[in-house]
Amino acid sequence: MRPILSHFVLFLMGMLFAPFAAAQVEADAAIQDARDSLGGRGAFPWYDREADAPRPLRLRTVEDDSDNRASDWQPAPATGTAVRPPNLSWLGRILQIMGISALVALLVLAVVLITRAFLSGEVMETAGSKVVETGHDVDRVEHLPFQLRKPVGDFLSEARRLYEAGDYSQAILYLYSHFLVQLDRQHVIRLAKGKTNRQYLRETRSRPVLHQILEITMVGFEDVFFGHHKISREQFEASWNRLSEFEAELTQVERAAA
User: For the residues 146-170, what does the mean pLDDT come to?
Assistant: First the structure.
């Protein structure tokens, strides 16, 4: 009984593994056929006969050769997908130039305003000092060695007004008063009550130019004030025409005292 069972088991196993064995035989036969084919005279660069294994192939990179092929296909040109931002450097330069121009304009405006304010202050100060000096000059009339009507302005302006009006006798009175007041201001003489014209004239001897101008004017003044004479235009202009020389000499006195 056991032999029959054993044969039956072997039969079943044979039936079970028979397809696998047949497939293995066929595979081995195919491999052998391939070896026989590769082992012939043909050249197969991808097969190594000695190692019975494939060998790696080094393929040469083929550049696009569409112009030498019978084909209408052309490679599509490469297109960049990146979007370039707009160039705004010119706008920055314009804004920079505008900013610098505005700054320069503000600086110039500030300089102009400061200069105007300074000059305006100088003019006001000069005008104010001139008004004060004129008031002091008129107040000095009481120290003159004679009685004289106070002028509306200063002595020199009154002398000019009378000269232009043709009243040379009255004009010489105010011109002489102007000379005395200016000499007192620069400390060439010292106005005081009780002093005479001759005393003032002697005080100017250290300044020959001033002494000569004052003497000529004093003679015309005394002819009118004490002698009640009228003087001519030529007599008045002998002193009037030296007014600029008188002022220049006083300027030198002022500079020497500074």
Answer: 87
pTM over 0.90: no
Sequence length of the chain is 258
Q: Per residue, what are the HEC states of the chain?
A: CHHHHHHHHHHHHHHHHHHHHHHHHHHHHHHHHHHHHHCCCCCCCCEECCCCEECCCCCCCCCCCHHHCCCCCCCCCCCCCCCCCCCCHHHHHHHHHHHHHHHHHHHHHHHHHHHHHHHHHHHHHHHHHHHHHHHHHHHHHHHCCCCCCCCCCCHHHHHHHHHHHCCHHHHHHHHHHHHHHHHHHCCCCCCCCCCCHHHHHHHCCCCHHHHHHHHHHHHHHHHHHCCCCCCCHHHHHHHHCCHHHHHHHHHHHHHHHC
CB under 8 Å to 247, separation ≥6 — which residues? Answer: 182
- CA-to-CA distance for 213 and 224, rounded, in angstroms? 17
Amino acid (1-letter code) at residue 26: E
Q: What residue ranges define each of the domains in the chain, with the CATH number in brackets?
A: 7-55 (no CATH), 140-257 (1.20.120)
pLDDT 10s digits, 55-111 = 676 666 655 555 555 556 665 666 656 666 666 677 778 888 888 888 888 888 887
